[in-house]
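chain below, 490 aa
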Amino acid sequence: MSVPMLQRAAVGELSRRRRLGVLAICCASIVVVVMDISIVTVALPSIRADLGASVAQLQWTVDAYTLVLASLLLLAGSTADRVGRRRVFQIGLAAFGLGSLLCSLAPTAEWLIAARALQAVGGTMLNPVAMAIVATTFPDRAERARAIGVFGAMSGLALALGPILGGALVDGVGWRAIFWINVPVVVVAIVLTAFFVPESRAPRARRFDPVGQLLVILMLGCVVYAIIESEKRGWTSPVILGLLGVAVLAVLALLVYEPRRTDPMLELRLFRSVPFSSAILMALFALCGFGSFLFVTTLYLQNVRGLSALAAGLCLLPVGAVIMVVSPFTGRLVGTRGPRLPLVVAGSALAIGAASSLWLGPTTPLPAVLAVYLFFGIFLGTVNPPITNTAVSGMPLSMAGLAGSVASAARQTGTTLGVAIAGTIVGSTAAGNSPAFTHAEHHLWWPVMGLGIGLVALALLSTTRWARATTQRTAELFNRPAATPEGRSG
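prediction:
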């Protein structure tokens, strides 16, 4: 069948083999996007040595990527709904590939940070758009659930296995290879997308909200920059206080401006649902904890323990193995018993992992270190499916996609904040191999432990009968008559 004919073909006419091909293409795209969040962490010591990067620049190497992802996810999803998902998907693949190529050629840390931001611009067009393509390609509800389950499992697995692949590439070829590997994957995906993925659009796409988009970027950018620079300037610095003040003003402007729009980028009425609000907080807490863990762990293993990049990546293999085993079981458990138990397990595992990490030092036996990492694997393997379920469950179909996108943005924001906070706490000790690093690192595990306890509390709160009732009332808001341009009902 020719490409033009495929463009006109209805999704329901696609054969099972073609639908599975579409799923494989979307999974490949999400693997490279998500893996680039974690694969770079194992290369940070090599990047520091080769480019002479500071600790703040290492933080920005990770955070420039996750910050752009968090800021533009909602815009990319709504744009794809309006102009065509396949078209935006291909543009995203091309931008991601170009950004990867520029990263591999970076002569300075500043160049690398800028190229990482370009990578992320492409990534924002792949993450939510690929999910929408998968959802429209599988019209049968049972098939769609299985396909989305595979898609989500690949995302979690890519995040955990990134350091392992990164370690092999850094030791075998060099840190630039972690970006080279994306280019052939992207080229093949662009070609296959042209032949196998049909074009689709939303029946009614949400309007572009430039003011809301600018306010979100301003808010997140100021907060992250303030955290990263606070280690050098101090929290009482006029620059830091000014940045935090601008962030607060951006939040207030969002609260005033967004409810006045017919199609707001950030639908604030969703937050009237206690489970939805809890899911967003849990996504922030969870990925903030994991981002902190990933950033300091790779530095600890290489700078303090003296392991090679590959050996450091292999030390994270227990995390990936646990995710592979636990994630499918978690999905089934959420479907049969609801999200409470997996979320309680996830929060408890994060808190126990953080508490156990307080005992890790330069000479701790490696088996004991790996045993501690198992808790972080249990945490990540049990946390993602119930968060997504909590965010979208009970919402009308018209809002389910937006609710899921907000949860995805919260995850990226959490990762960004986790890296920023971890780098600020370990500070200049990240450059050395002395016990000073582990002493500084121990100060990080107390707030991470608090995040785990917060997860447990939110899990219990969001699954009460009262919380479920707020979701029902929120869903009814979106079933009321449409608002006029001057305002909205409800």
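The chain has a mean pLDDT of 84. The chain has three domains: 13-199, 210-264, 269-476.
thats it, cya
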